[in-house]
Amino acid sequence: MRTDDAAADRAASAFRERFGTDPEGVWAAPGRVNVIGEHTDYNGGFVLPIALPHATRAAMARRDDGRVVLRSLQHPDEDADVAVADLAPGSPSGWAGYAAGVVAELAGSVPGGLSVLVDGEVPAGAGLSSSAALECAVAVALRDLLGLDLSPEDLVDVARRAENDFVGAPTGILDQSASVLCTEGHALFLDTRDRGTEQVPFDLAAAGLALLVLDSGTTHDHAAGGYRDRRRECEAAAEQLGVPLLRDVADVADLERLRDGSAEGEVLHRRARHVVTEDQRVLRVVGTLRAGEDPRAIGPLLTEGHISLRDDFEVSVPLLDACVDAAVAAGAHGARMVGGGFGGSAIALVDADAVDTVTAAVTDRFAREGAPAPRSFVAVPAAGARRLS
Ligand code: GLA
User: Fold this and answer.
1) Range of the domain at 174
2) What is the CA radius of gyration of the chain?
3) What's the pTM value of the predicted model, to 2 decimals?
């Protein structure tokens, strides 16, 4: 991983090379892994993400010709150049849509246009929120550059609206909240209903542990159907239960009412059971960490969360199941898929001296499944969105 200074220099010099002038600043925002609390955010529930050291940088300067010119070192053949007035869903599309969507949200403040150079190392399609990292880097840059009076929560909302309304992915606020609000050394305990936050100390190294991220290499796309279907099912379950959000269900026993003998009732019951039990798991994990107990105790809750995502919410894929099984069989204290699912990454809580053994066991298992070795790294909680220079 580059240091912030080296990363800022690299983005600034690439900006100069492409635009022929200095940027007015360089900003960064991280990707995330969620420790626990999956598919709870759009149900008003709890989440517990950490920010990754992997970040996206935006070097930026204002223009005076009314155009938004977007360039990415990761997508060198996909420059975008659109008049501010013409920004609209699909214009531009692809990677640039995530950045342009944020500019569109704040378009009234940037009549003269912007030059933007993007660089970063958050793996795309790995369930590690590369899209939120890009959105949040641009949002925080615009706030500073234009002197906008936006709170951190406003930045989260701007970035999330870019994803929902411009890109068309119906996600919740987990990823953008993590990218903006996380702090080094902590997990962010967020109540997505009232937006209350608590920074929970998360120093696994001190306990001789590591959080291993294993990217299965199977990609996901949240603009696609599965995620949208799950949202609809959760809304249908809440409506049938007569509550505004599944967060409002106090006890899994209250979900029995969904089982009306129909196949659909059974499906809604399982979807809702995932959400209600996942909220309970987040609270138990936070309780363990707050009390300063041995973090190994959260391992079984992570694995339970995976089983719930696999069997009740049905958003896992066989390779992620294989990853979790192999990690736990090789000595991980717990493991689960992370993010929206249908591909992407898993995390495993492992003793620090078992990182190599567990990675090798998962690699072997992937080979037997005919899959290439997973990309892997140890995640240490890093800082949220910030100005670098
Ligand atoms: C994706 C979405 C988030 C959240 C997770 C599942 O990452 O962007 O809003 O719903 O899936 O927890």
Assistant:
1) 4-199+383-387
2) 21
3) 0.97
